[in-house]
Write a structure and sequence with these properties.
It is built from 2 helices and no strands. By secondary structure, it is an all-alpha fold.
Length: 114
Amino acid sequence: MINRKSFSTYIIWLAIIILALCQFVRVDPYIVWSSETFVGVFIALMGIAVAVIIGYQAVNANEIKQDLREQKAENETLRKEIVAFRQHIESTVTDFELRVNSGIELMDSKVSSF
């Protein structure tokens, strides 16, 4: 998965590559700046910003899915450990009850022999 730090690094490298390509291709804008040009540039920048935000949300959603999978797997292992521990406790309590009951029966037999 792409974490946030590497995502921003990818964006920076993408910008550097695009600027390098513009330098090698020699993109020289010879246009007349009018209100239509300003609106077109503004809409293009808004589109780029929206694309970056949607891309960030997609990466973030994938990270959250991965985190949820990891938590689910951890919860399952903890549940299995709890079940095993509960069974161990029950067997220990049963063994203790048997020992106590056998001790009580032994004491009863000694008391009744007097």
